[in-house]
Amino acid sequence: KRFGGLTALDGVSVKIRPGEIWGLIGPNGAGKSTLLNVIAGVFRPEAGSVHFKGQRISGLKPEQICRRGLARTFQICRPFPRMTALENVLVAATFGTRADGQSPQSRAEAMLDLVGFALPVHTPADSLTAAQLRRLDLARALASRPQLVLLDEAAAGLTPGELADLQQLILKIRNQGVTFLIVEHLMRLIMQLCDQIVVLHYGRKIAEGTPLEIQGSPEVASAYLGE
User: Fold this and answer.
1) Dist. CA 144–CA 67, nearest whole Å
2) Half-sphere exposure (CA, 13 Å, Cβ side) for 198?
3) Higher-confidence position of 14 and 97
4) Is the dihedral of CA 110, 86, 93, 78 positive or negative?
5) Three-class SS string for the chain?
6) Strands 55-56 and 51-52: what pairing?
7) Statement: the pTM of the whole predicted model exceeds 0.85
């Protein structure tokens, strides 16, 4: 993926298998969020392609990709500010994939309950704190019934207790058949949670492997700490 003369992603290749939790890490500006945007259809790549469940999805619109079972959260949460928390999640429950006959209303309420949204569901979105918006964003992503979820810094601003709850929640959702690709700066969470990790540096993949393999990689240490 290029932006003018800047190559933001250069030959990045990743294959994620169903039921896995993958981490995507790298220094600031490494191309992590750009890769999520390419996968989700926000950006169209200049070269290469994205395949999901055996079908090419690069070139499709984000809403088309979402309806195929790929959802995401955002580094900066952007709810519909004049709508309530429930109405925000209802958008995804209504326009996402439908498989079990559950009503959008019931689905939205269930997802807010699943992520531990503690406020009344009719709370306006523009009155929520950053941590509450994170939960709302995750509930909205899950309401579309995804098979793959792209999480972009979902742990930002969470307390240690909330962080532990998030980790258990992701594992619980994975056990229900959902695959995750997680962008996160909090290394403790990534190392404890992920089956495999990909490391980007200046738009290129410099390492891929288990958390233990990534911890012992000289290339990763150099990218984060310098020579």
Assistant:
1) 7
2) 21
3) 14
4) negative
5) CEECCEECCCCCCCCCCCCCEEEEECCCCCCHHHHHHHHHCCCCCCCCCCEECCEECCCCCHHHHHHCCEEECCCCCCCCCCCEHHHHHHHHHHHCCCCCCCCHHHHHHHHHHHCCCCCCCCCEHHHCCHHHHHHHHHHHHHHCCCCEEEEECCCCCCCHHHHHHHHHHHHHHHCCCCEEEEECCCHHHHHHHCCEEEEEECCEEEEEECHHHHHCCHHHHHHHHCC
6) antiparallel
7) yes
123 pLDDT above the threshold of 70? yes
Yes or no: say if 207 and 14 are a contact pair by the CB < 8 Å rule.
Answer: no
Beta-ladder partners of 7: 2
Q: Single out the residue of 22, 59, 3, 42 nearest to residue 200, CA to CA.
A: 22
User: What's the pLDDT band for 47 if we cut at 50, 70, 90?
Assistant: very high
Separation of alpha carbons 179 and 206, rounded Å: 23
Least Cα distance to 65 among 179, 144, 9 occurs for 144
Q: Is the Cβ–Cβ distance between 220 and 204 less than 8 Å? A: no
Please give the Cα distance from 25 to 185 (Å, whole number).
Answer: 7
Task: Say if CB 130 and CB 156 are below 8 A apart.
Answer: yes
Is residue 168 very low, low, confident or very high in pLDDT (cuts 50, 70, 90)? Answer: very high
Please report how many Cα atoms fall inside a 13 Å half-sphere around the Cα of residue 200, on the Cβ side. 26
Residue type, 169: L
What gap in Å lies between CA 25 and CA 71, rounded to an integer? Answer: 19
Tokens 């990709």 belong to 65
Predicted confidence at residue 99, as pLDDT, reads 62
